[in-house]
Amino acid sequence: MSQGGARSYRALAIVLKHREYGEADRILTLYTQEFGKVQAIAKGVRKLKSRKAGHLEPFTLVSLQLAKGRTWELISQAEAQRTFQNIREDLNLTARAAYLVELIDRFSYEEGPNRGLFQILLDGLQRLDEGFAPTTVTLYFEIRLLDLVGFRPELQRCVACDAEILPEAQYYSPKLGGALCPRSFSADPTAWRISLNALKYMRHFQRSAWSKIKSLTIPSEIQDEINHLIQHHLTYLLEYNLKTPGFLKSVK
Known about the structure:
The radius of gyration is 20 Å and the shape is elongated. The two termini are 40 Å apart. Helix 2 runs antiparallel to helix 8 (244-251). It folds into two domains: 8-83, CATH 2.40.50.140; 86-251, Up-down Bundle (de novo design (two linked rop proteins)), CATH 1.20.1440.120. Residues 1-5 have low confidence and may be disordered. It has a five-stranded mixed β-barrel. Strands 7-6-8 form a three-stranded antiparallel β-sheet. Helices cover 37% and strands 22% of the residues. The longest helix is centred in the C-terminal third of the chain and has 19 residues, at 220-238. By secondary structure, it is an alpha+beta fold.
C-alpha cells in the first residue's frame, strides 16, 4: 500500500488478530482509521523484553508508527490508547468482541479507508466495555455493518413485488435482500419466516441512532429470531460459516 510516498507514517488502529511468525515476530491484521485494513509485522514482539507486546493484543485501540516494508508494513512504535479491560476480563464479552472483529475482517479488504467501518467497530467495543446489553450492541453493529458494506436489508417494501409490507408475519430472503411478502413467497422458497415483532425491531434498529436504542429491552424470543435471521444473511453473503458464533454459543 502507498501512503503518498512517505516511508514512515502514523495511524490509529484496532488490532483484529495476529499470528506467530518466525522465532519472535508477529504478523498483525489491523483496521486503521486512516488507511483501512493493513497487514503489519511487529519484529521481536514475542521476546520477554519487548515493549510493544502489551500494546498489540487483539481488540486494542493503538496509535502506531509504521514504516514501509516489502511484504508488510513494519511497526516501529505502538502505544495503546484503550485496552478495553472489561472485555478482557469477561469471557462472554471477549466472545462478542471476537465476533465483531471477525465480521470486520471478513467484510473488508486492503483497498483503502472506510472510516465508517472503523467507527462502528470502535463504538461496538466501547459499548461492550461500558456494560451495555451485549445482544443490543451486537445487533446494532450488524445492522450498521450491512449498511456500510452495501447490503442494507429492505424492510419496508417487498423485495420481489415492491408492495408495501403489511402489518403481518412476512418472510425474509437473504438471497433477495430483505422482506418478502407472503404473496411473493415463490420468488424465493428458501426464505425464512419473520414475525411482525421481529420486523418492527429490525426497522427500529435500522432507522434509529444509538441514543434511541441503548436502553431498549428486546424480548429473548425476538432476540433469538433476529439473531438467526442475521446469521443466515451474513453466511449467505460471505459464502462462509463464521467461526466466532460457535465460540459465543459455547460460552453461553
